[in-house]
């Protein structure tokens, strides 16, 4: 409610997800494919919908340990930090082995370590992001559509073979990252630039609803028709001081297009990189965010 009152005139208000009397048929008539994963979730899809499996605490802790190991390895082997980045059978096996080790260590002990700290921050941000998305974004064009239905068992590829779900999200055509890679490979750089502008516009539309994504990388956004949408609500915050701290560190950082992983993608088009970086610096700044932020 509060979020609705904060909205300026002329904006579509957030809506509750549409409630269906049963799950969309395409979710139950086939085994769903695993199409993506992150630290907190594994995502399975049918043609038009995705469902999510939230990872368990031990799974998330295993991934944090692996991520820390990879960063250590990177000190000795160049590119070591990229070793575990892509989902693969080898990486999954390694994660499951690590998870078994983690289960041997009492939970209380993990909580006192730096790993426990990272895990707590991750959990906090993920829950806060989801609840902010519900009050400020759901049902708007800024996020994919959500539907809810009575708890339903669906078959999924790989372990655990099935899931019980009671909500589904509209499947995006591509992540923004995948779309940009594809367009760049085909030499369609005008469209690359157009999508990058839409990305910046989407971010500003989020700010005018009082939310800012602290985790604004290109795999957390998706493409629906001619829109960019936010697919990972995990990094959303409404805390102005947190946003300012983030903007402060970003200012002195490397070029925005490099930080977003577009170094090689835009290597042949420094002019586009240059234009994007200067637009980003002007828009993603304290002043830029404040211009949109609700009273
Ligand atoms: N609505 C969606 N449509 C298509 N793919 C999706 C959708 N939501 C997530 N994905 C895929 O799953 C990946 C992980 O989802 P994400 O929500 O970012 O999880 P995490 O919070 O664990 O990072 C995304 O990068 C994307 O590839
Ligand atoms: Mg993500």
- Residues in β-strands, percent: 15-25%
Low-confidence stretches: 1-7
Q: What is the typical, i.e. mean, pLDDT? A: 90
- The strand count comes to 11
Heteromolecules bound: adenosine-5'-diphosphate, magnesium ion
Cα-atom radius of gyration: 20 Å
The biggest beta sheet reads: 6 strands, mixed
Structural domain count: 2
Strand arrangement within the widest β-sheet reads: 1-5-6-4-3-2
Number of helices: 12
Order of helices and strands: HEHEEEHHHHEEEHHEEEEHHHH
So what's the overall shape?
globular
What is the CA–CA distance across the termini? 15 Å
Strand pairing plus helix content: what structural class?
Answer: alpha+beta
Estimate percent helicity: 40-55%
Structure summarized in a few sentences:
With 295 residues, the protein is an alpha+beta fold. The chain contains twelve helices and eleven strands.
